[in-house]
Amino acid sequence: MPAYDDSNIFARILRGEIPNDTVLETEHTLVFRDIRPQAPVHVLVIPKGAYVSYDDFAAHASEAEIVDFHRAIAKVTRELGVALEGGLGFRAITNAGPDGVQEVPHFHMHILGGRPMGRMVQPG
Ligand code: AMP
Q: Domains, the chain, ranges and CATH?
């Protein structure tokens, strides 16, 4: 696991050094709009803790952080109207490392919706 680099852009957002368009904040989790949205709904769900990737988070976060993260996804998908309770669904994507084409090395889950999302993976 690469060491966490606390100069990454999401660490700076969490420290309040640069602005973000927050949709939801809980004890351990922040949800904000992606700056380059790929769909009518495109938010990023991040833990406040310093985790590089999903596997880092899943292996090392506390149970409280893991539950809070997933409950935040449940809440925000409902609030944004893309949960299956009342909506047409969404895609959740997390990229990890070079093969996953992860740009920002702070774990984040993309939530995309508001239109049919097409094929899951383009042929390589
Ligand atoms: P990934 O390739 O999974 O690491 O995705 C990183 C995402 O972060 C991209 O969708 C970017 O558009 C988004 N992003 C980068 N900088 C910001 C920022 N300052 N505020 C919101 N989203 C950002």
A: 9-113 (3.30.428.10)
